[in-house]
Design goal:
There is one protein chain. The chain contains 19 helices and 8 strands. By secondary structure, it is an alpha/beta fold. Strands 3-2-1-4-5-6-7-8 form an 8-stranded mixed sheet, with helices on both faces. Helix 9 runs antiparallel to helix 10 and helix 14 packs across helix 18.
Amino acid sequence: MDTSCDIGLIGLAVMGQNLVLNMDDHGYQVAVFNRTTSKMKEFIAGPAQGKKIIGAESLQELVSLLKHPRRVMLMVKAGTAVDEYIDALLPLLEPGDIIIDGGNSNYLDPTRRTGYLEQKGFLFVGTGVSGGEEGARNGPSIMPGGSPAAWPFIKDIFQSISAKDEDGSPCCDWVGENGAGHFVKMVHNGIEYGDMQLIAEAYHIMKSAVGLSCDQMSDYFEQWNKGKLDSYLIEITRDILRFKDADGTPLVEKILDTAGQKGTGRWTVDAALEMGIPLTLVAEAVLARSLSAIKDERVQAAGILGESINRYEGDTAEFVEKIRQGLYGAKITSYAQGYMLLRAAAKEYNWNLNYGGIALMWRGGCIIRSVFLGKIKNAFDHDPALVNLLLDPYFKSEIQDSLKAWRNVVSQAVSLGIPIPALSSALAFYDGYRLGSLPANLIQAQRDFFGAHTYERTDAPRGQFFHTNWTGMGGNTTAGTYQA
């Protein structure tokens, strides 16, 4: 029996097929299996024709084709399908063999699976793979975590097929134990939600308030992509706005305004809420998609409440430049929030995350790839213990330079009747973060008044709690408190 294959891959949907072809390009022999055998045969006879890729008609055959230690990568639907394949593979494998989940799993699942497989003598890797169809084929961002002992056996394959930074560094490195890889991928996706919403809000202002055509907006995005906002998402927005339908009109204007989502943005917000991290921009981006989804109700409301957006009357070029600056300031804030969540997770799960290295992994191949990420890597290289990106000298200066324009755009959009939940929530977070005193003292007084939840005092040491009998009719019994 031929046991020359370097890795086996299960699941030949678009991502799986392209990863296999990518591996073959880099000299690795891959055995493939798909639940529907005909799909595997179509792949072997089609895109894989003439390559070293070997098709297997059963899991037993797939495993028999692999070198030791065997490496099997799952590219199947997240959830129960992954667990079912793991259970089916275990009787066919030997201790020390490696199972890799490359799907969009919730980070809690690889955390559970790592412990489960290690107890049985196997190794598990849960890896985020970002970049979509194109990235999988030509070089994705890969974020592996799980059993550290597995990394030496998959490192060469993963780093070979990954995207490369300008200096040739692979956009792939070991992230950490258990669910760390999928957690980092989840935060990437949450930031992606935020970036997309910010760009959509900039588009909305330019289209509805300024009155720019799609071609005019595309020209501005092209200019922006040559500066500090240089990124994949800005680049494709430029191209989307230029794309014409068969009748010569902009296709984007014919696309129904209901945005879908697969859940990773919500998972990011759920994790932030669980850890008490104010991930306000991503939360608003997720909720904005939910609002877009109730299209019929919005149309009904427009007829009852009135649908009107006032036109901006000032200088167009000047205002568009302010939009660019506001978008940039909000983007900095979004990434600052994302890194706050990464830091909280590292503390919660005892992960030793390389924050600059994460920025490098996102620097190429993935959806949020941008020049901007190089500045984040520089910030953490300069100060690995940096508490927040907003406190880095470079980002402090950049956001302060954009602040006046950002405030102007938010106030103009509000007065004109344009919803900007991401731009405005990012500004509110920045203003809250920079204030040493917030009105939460009143909230805590209210909580103590109606629920005896106690409070701390400014003239007493932290950790010392007090209760006041506000009405004269209460007692001295106090309730517990939740510290976010």
